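SEVERITY: medium
COMPONENT: batch folding queue
REPORTER: lab tech (J.R.)

DESCRIPTION
The queue accepted two submissions in a row. Attaching both inputs and their returned structure tokens so the on-call engineer can compare them side by side.

ATTACHMENT 1
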Amino acid sequence: MNRFAEFELENKDLQPVAGYWAYELVSLEEALKGFLSQINELKRSIKEAKKYCKHPSPHNLTRDEAAAVLLYTMEAGDHSFYRILNQVLRKEDRKEAIPWFSYLKLFDTALKKLPK
């Protein structure tokens, strides 16, 4: 399935995912350690993202922040990281996103540093 055709054509009025901004910034490995046994090849993908991310970053992203963004954009078929995360973020039960808060904090911190 193409990533651009992946969205569901239904009107969901989801509450915002809130609370992750209060989490401390941690390394990418630390943010995702709870998912290593659940997501195929996640450890390898994290390693690749850290190896190939642009660092030093022209926008002052840390290596972990840059790798968090790169990891989200990496395509790996039906088991792509972004697909798994997006499925969680589309759920009506917002509590299901709580295990992802450390990653969301890292990802959001990186995105805020990028030019608009």
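ATTACHMENT 2
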Amino acid sequence: MNEQVEKWLLKAEHDLIVARNETKIEGAPTDVICFHCQQAVEKYLKAFLTHHQVDMRRTHNIAELLTLCIERDRDFEELKKRRIYELTIYAVQVRYPDDFYIPSPEETAEALTMAEYTRAFVMRKLS
């Protein structure tokens, strides 16, 4: 595996570790957890695309990244069916006060489930 792919994976793992650990805190900051779930998914997809030498612009848009992954491997339709693209709102919306809102515990649990599933899916594809 090339060094750039490994870097994307390491950063994704770090985001997922933070998300997992934050869920253990009473009164956990759901906005922070969802942000890190979005970041992890984004970086796992970028690792896959980098592995396949796909040119991509700088973006936080998971739907856009997922489309590029599907063009390379139709199995990624599974992630589309699971609607992981919905995590994109956590890239910006929960980070700034203008569009700010606090995700519910249920939304947060779903975001973590999506991130964990994406991790397992991409790691299988890269192995």
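NOTES FROM REPORTER
The two ends are 9 Å apart (CA to CA).
No errors were logged for either attachment.
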